[in-house]
Amino acid sequence: MPVPVPHDYGYVHADRASWPEGWDYTPRRSVNSSGGENEAVRVGTGEYWVFMEGLGTALDSNRGVAHVTAHGASNAYCTIRYTSRSWAGDGTGEPTAWTGVWLSLRCYKPDGAPTDAEFTASWANAEVADGRSGFAYLTTSQLNSHVPYEGYWYNSSGYGVKVSRVATGRYEVQLPGQGGGFDPGAQLGHVQVTAAHAAVDGRRCMVGSIRSAFDPVVVEVNCHAPDSGSPADSLFALTYVRKASLVRTDLAAYTRAQGRDDEHTDPQWTWDALGEPTSVTTGTGSDEGRYWVKTPMMERFDKGNVQVTALGSDARFCKVAKWSPDTGIEVRCFDHKGNPAQTPFLASYAE
What we know:
By secondary structure, this protein is mainly β. It contains no helices and 25 strands. Helix content is about 0%, strand content about 45%. The strands form 6 sheets. The protein has a 5-stranded antiparallel β-sheet, with no helix packed on it. Strands 3-1-9-6 form a 4-stranded antiparallel β-sheet, with no helix packed on it. A hairpin with a 3-residue loop joins strand 23 (about 315-325) and strand 24 (about 330-335). The chain starts with 7 loop residues before the first strand and ends with a strand. The model has no long low-confidence stretch (mean pLDDT about 90).
């Protein structure tokens, strides 16, 4: 059965790192479920706006969740500053309708200095829970333990979500109704995390672990300061999906890579809508920190959207270098200083 599409979704691949400030263009590999335009604006060095026309237009609609991954060969990384909505009014100063979604993004060098970078970004929301597991998201609103603000989270199971601060820069996210009761051979889903509302020092976040054999699903998130790599509190955005894309479309693929020389994919955390197999090749020597993910879906990799998140607790980070039908998804990973390094990671494709 096809996965139900959320209320709204959109994604872009900005294949330019730098262009005149204040100018906008329509990025390639751009999709908008409303049929509206997606535009990217460069505000300044390393700072961008993405406007997705016609998304999230209902006055009481869920604010959704955004993710961004740096793209290209450099060691840059990107974060979500915040999301907002444009509106139309009647002259009283109050909105009568929303007209689209704005994503504010920042990209950095490993030491936290702003830098221009290509990027790939996505946004999705959902409204009414269908009582089934397989899709949940949230954007945190506090640095301590809390339940995110209403409108900034969704859980398809119909239950709530919870964020617990375990230690400096370490959080546990509970997603009730998303785990437990699975056949031991069933694949267990996929998570992406992006630092959000990041301070000017460009803090980064990564997935520490995913525990989904029992209910609730518990995702550990680890956040770090740039350059030093020391644990640091940060807000973040998180999405959990199972047998669907990050924006809950049914043409999708994802995997969890071990990041080692003896690379192999774990079928418990790997899925492709077109079947099997998925493989990951690890670069060595001068290709240290490079990986190539090949899946049956790669025949469609002239389009779509890719997001990548590092997995672990050691402040390493990953990005997507490119994706194409010929080479699959090329991922590059780095230590906290920006040097190429072997790193476990999570990669997802959405169409």
